[in-house]
Amino acid sequence: MRKGFLFMVIFLILSLQTFAQVEDRFGFFTESEITEYARPFGTTLGMAFNSGSYHSAEVADFFGFSIGFKGMYIFIPNDDLTFTPSLPQGYSAEQKTATIYGNEGAAYYGPQGFIVYPQGINETSIPAVLPQISASLMGTEVMLRYLPSISLGSGDEELSMFGIGVKHSISRYIPLIPVDVAVQFLYNNLEITGVMDITAIAFNAHASRSFGLFTLYGGLQYESSTFDLEYEFTNPSNLPSVQPGNVKVSIDGDNNFRGTLGGSVKLAVIALNIDYSLGAQSVLSGGLTFEF
Question: Of 4, 93, 248, 281, which one has the greatest count of Cβ atoms within 10 A?
Fold first, then answer.
């Protein structure tokens, strides 16, 4: 029962199964190479955390409250499937090897023998789900995503998550404007102690217009992500030029700008939405929100 609940919680927060499948492969990589192998995963985490934060630019003038679940499907571009490794002198990287999302790992022959790289998980899309609650007052909305520390049952590893978003209506200062306009700041952090720590930050401006029960919305967002990773380099290729040991590395994701366009339908207290974002990785996002 405990393991089943833990699996549900982890999947609810993010598709960390991806990480679990490849964690034991990090030991193949030196610090300079792990950056390129794992960067696409850090970008995916950033794309997920910075998605699903709005489905309308309208903010309650007095008081509002909502609870919802946001699902994402993140598409991995071809450029994130392979990378060119940093090989010692005397080796030639004529072919690329797999990133965390790629397929076959490559092998290279040179003066020190073969250097072998592991395969990836051979995936071109990753799902994720995030729960969130929001409260608004006088044109300002605060959104929270939270999970207290949960033991993963392996040593001292614990998983925790915290996210906050602050949104403010701009259209309330512009009389007779035909659309709702708002700006929003987002901060999200997910940590597995002693293993990984991901921080995602974003700022966006978005607008919406309602047509009866239907609302059309879109926005432009600047975002960034940082993926801190700790692992043991095992030197499986037995290279004399490098030594096994603990590696701590901070990896910046490729997240930068994204554009979003979507629509939502309001049925009593239930809002259903779907949108598509173009950025470092594309995201199809949908949500179920109960608004009061």
Answer: 281
